[in-house]
Amino acid sequence: MIADHALLAVEVGPGKHAVEFRYRPRLLSAGLAAAAAGLLALLGAAFLRRGR
User: Fold this and answer.
1) What pTM was estimated for this model as a whole?
2) pLDDT less than 70: residues of the chain
3) Do 15 and 22 form a contact (C-beta atoms < 8 A)?
4) Which of 2, 19, 26, 41 is most buried, by the most CB atoms less than 10 A from its CB?
């Protein structure tokens, strides 16, 4: 069985099969959390400045 860097391969025997690949990078979740925290901080700073 041959697969390159862009494709995945799974060898299965005869018969009916359901193969599912899931890709959930850890850094994506961390990046989204950091972006959300930054946005909340920016909105909080704008709200505090507006109150002055």
Assistant:
1) 0.51
2) 51-52
3) no
4) 41
